[in-house]
Amino acid sequence: MKTNLLAIAILCFTQFFLNSCNKNDFDWKSAQELSGNNVDIIINQYLHNIYDSELNQNYKKGIKNIRLSLDLDNVKKIRNQESNHESLYSVPLKKTFLSNNETLFDNVKIVLFKITKDNKVVDAKIVELVSNKSSSSELELYSDAIKIYSLNKNRFSGSINISSINNEFVSEDIYSDGKLIKSKYLVQKRKISTTTSYSYSKMVCIDWYWETYIGNILVSSVYVFTSCAGNDCEQTRVNTENGYVTVRCGGGGSNSSSPSANSVRNKVLDSCIKNLINSITANTNMQNAITNILVNTFAVSSRVNLSFVQNDNLVNDYGQPINGHASATYNNQANTINVTVEINANKLKNSSQQYKSAVIIHEIIHGVLHTDTTTYNGMTQHAYILANYIDGMSTALMDYFPTLPLQEARSISLDGLGTTVYNSQAFLTVISNYGFNSNSNSSDSYFYYRVLHEAGSLGLICN
Amino acid sequence: MKKSLFALLFILFLSNQSYCQIFSKKIDRETKSFLSFIRQDLFKNSDTLRILNYSQNVNLFKHVLLLNCCDLSEGEILNIMTSMKKDTYRYFGSKEIISLNPVKLFGKQNNEIDIFQLSNPIFFRNYNMCIFSYESSYHETQYTYLFKKVSKKWQRVKQIGEVNNY
Asked: Which residues does chain B have within 8 Å of residue A31's beta carbon, measured at their own beta carbons?
């Protein structure tokens, strides 16, 4: 008996040393041990990404201001949300942070970052605590904020103003002795006006309301004001109990309907891509499909002028070739969106017509999204495209290429979204809903058809 | 009886240690050799290479289609996939390896963002082939390449994966 036990002990001991072999190589350390110590890097990367994708100079300035004002030495993990593998972190904002009206703030502000287990920021909000007690110290207010968002008991009385990372007002929560009494949101309700201000579209206005909730029950909805396309909404301010709230609705977006490519300039030299652009923009079905894409999630009243140019040297600023790029300007006076799409024909030279078309549509969507960042407030353009456009793009592609199977259309529509999106839980959910996986050895992987179409091994090739 | 069992245990312990050392030295040598090569190959246009001070495979090797790409056996594909997906270790040896060339390493306290994340090289066929991936978090792009050794020198064969951001 003793001998048997000893033999088992020897086996276990041997197994232990064999298994420990890899871990002792060089200076390996488990990612699990280290994750959580890099929150400042993750936050910086997130801010840099949204700064990079933001075209509105004021917003860029705001994001830069946040980055410079974040007190990253005092990052605090507030809580883990086990159900969705996310953690909430708070970072105090230094007093150097300027609010929208560019004045130094007096109240305590923190930024809350929701970070997934794979180290991606999925949400960020600026939180401002306005205490009813004039004697509350900064330290007390920080402590209250931590307690509130870690769901611990607190005695805070006052209001908490929550803004997006772009510093746009989202909601106001009123607390009394640590209990949430009510929440107020500024919400928009779209209405189509009977006035036809433009020959090609109806005017759509937005009514803005204060909605107050007590315990998730809507208790009041108070009309505040109306904004319509063409209004200079950047300047619109609403007087609230707690001061001013800036509301932005410029850019001609989100205010009306019936977008269409009112003029198309196709300066692309590559005959294959040139013909695809002509077909896409002239084909009624295709244009309707694109129109539907834009109308459904981005109602545009403005005239959309599309220009396509060929740039075979199109690279990112590290010199890596990219398929395409879109830029846009909005002419407030003429209510016109001018979208310029650059296409890298050299990078696409081997690709199928379907893949090239997907790139063209992807860039058109970027172009229009550039003109109104409020549409995807708090999201990157690619996250917004994932959430709203993939089905529309797939339908548009199948409309134009009737023999293109749905899964192939989805696969190529999912291209070009960048690593942040591909690492997100939202993306995993989307591909799972589509019946895709992410395995390198599976024809059901979401990139399987994309790889083949991009290489020209599948799909129609231009002669 | 007891004495002989303890002797056996001691021998096993020693042999395991020496096995680990040989194994460790081999990977160490090959990794250093490979990373020195890619500094001169993939990153030759970077005057100063800006990388995280560790390499790891988490979230790298995306969009790599091993089917029909590289003439791999089923077993090789499964082994490579395991390294791509399951290897979560961080290797902190890059400093010594690439420091012959201008390199800027960034740790967790940095405020810089435009830096590369390198994968650990995945060796197979007795260290004669390798798959390597890197990501630019700033550009949100990722590239994966296949390499092979010819006359004891590494050569880039082809790109086998790309995460686009456009």
From this structure: 56, 58, 88-90
A166 with A81, same domain: the answer is: yes
- Quick one: what percent of chain B has pLDDT higher than 90? 37
- CA–CA gap between residue A207 and residue A191 (Å, rounded): 7
Question: What digits encode the pLDDT tens for the residues B15-43?
Answer: 555 545 555 678 888 888 898 898 889 88
Strand (E) or helix (H) holding A447: none
Q: Is A9 within a domain?
A: no
A263: nearest Cα among A282, A250, A279, A276: A282
Q: Could you say which of A45, A322, A359 has the minimum Cβ distance to residue B113?
A: A45
- pTM for this predicted structure: 0.57
Both A224 and A126 in one domain: the answer is: no
Is A17 inside any structural domain? no
Identify the domain containing residue B50 by its residue range. 2-163
Model ipTM over 0.85: no
Q: How many domains does chain B have?
A: 1
The 3 state secondary structure assigned to A329-384 is: EEECCCCEEEEEEEECCCCCCCCCHHHHHHHHHHHHHHHHHHCCCCCCCCCCHHHH
> Touching check for A7 and chain B: CB below 8 Å?
yes
Per-residue pLDDT tens for B74-114?
A: 999 999 999 998 777 777 765 555 554 556 666 544 555 56
Are A60 and A54 within 8 A, CB to CB? yes
Contact call for B5 and A21, based on CB within 8 A? no
User: Domain of A424?
Assistant: 261-455
B-chain residues near A26 (CB < 8 A): 24, 27-28, 91-93
Say yes or no: A440 and A371 in one domain. yes
Which of A219, A249, A279 marks a domain boundary?
Answer: A249
B90 contact residues in A (CB cutoff 8 A): 28-31, 34
In chain B, whose CA is at the least distance from the CA of A70? Answer: B111
Most confident of A11-25, A27-41, A376-390, B121-135: B121-135
Q: Which of residues 2-41 of B touch A (CB under 8 A)?
A: 2, 5, 8-9, 12-13, 16-17, 19-20, 23-24, 27-28
Contact A360, A341 (CB under 8 A): yes
Given an 8 Å threshold on Cβ–Cβ distance, is B16 in contact with A52?
Answer: no
Contact A28 B91 (CB under 8 A): yes
